[in-house]
Every structure is written in C-alpha cells, then in structure tokens.
Amino acid sequence: QVQLVESGGGLVQAGGSLRLSCAASGSISRFDVVGWYRQAPGNQREWVASISGSTTKFADSVKGRFAISRDNAKSTVSLQMNSLKPEDSGVYYCAGFVLTRQYWGQGTQVTVSS
C-alpha cells in the first residue's frame, strides 16, 4: 500500500528558510504528479507547487521563493521554502497522483513568526 510521509516542518522567523520532504513508501516515480498543498487555520487547503516529470509549477504567492524537486534514488520530493512570510504558515501536505488515484500524507506544521 502506498504511503506518503511529510517531514521538515517547524518554527522559523520571517525571512528564513525551511526544506520540507515528502517520502514515498514505494518509488516516488510511480506518480504522474506530486504536489504540495497547505492549509492555514480557518482557510481551505490551497495548492502551492507541483512537479510532473521535469515540469514544475508554483502558485503566484510563492513563485520566486519556493522550489520543488524530486530525488528518485531517495524516493522523495522536496519543497525548498525561502524568504518565508507569516502568511506562509499552515499545515503542509504532499500528494501523489497516478491515473485516477491520489495519495496524501499526514501533513507537517510550518509556523513563520513575524
């Protein structure tokens, strides 16, 4: 059974950086798309970034500050977050998509203080 686990969250000051990791129990390459999403308290979940093959996409709110990458050898997808802002705070989730199925991790908390 496919499992995804996020890690790397924590508390960071505004302007700082964090690197999140999404690890798959199987090969991360089985997914057509891997995406990162976040949910702040009181808000709906929003899409942050995704990677499909060598193509990466980012929400306008994080473009230029975040980067997404895949390491097939380690079966992970990472989200590098730089120049963090308080509005980046929330629970970050990774999700893998293949054919008609989707798999979600449990989330990792990111808190950016002003």
Biggest sheet character: 7 strands, mixed
Cα distance spanning the termini: 41 Å
Number of helices: 0
Low-confidence stretches: none
Total number of beta strands:
11
Please write out the topology:
Elements: E1 4-7, E2 10-13, E3 18-24, E4 33-39, E5 46-52, E6 55-58, E7 66-71, E8 76-81, E9 90-98, E10 101-104, E11 108-113
Parallel strand pairs: 2-11
Antiparallel strand pairs: 1-3, 3-8, 4-5, 4-9, 5-6, 7-8, 9-10, 9-11
Protein described:
The protein is mostly beta strands. The chain has strands at 4-7, 10-13, 18-24, 33-39, 46-52, 55-58, 66-71, 76-81, 90-98, 101-104, 108-113. Strands 2, 4, 5, 6, 9, 10 and 11 form a seven-stranded mixed β-sheet that branches.
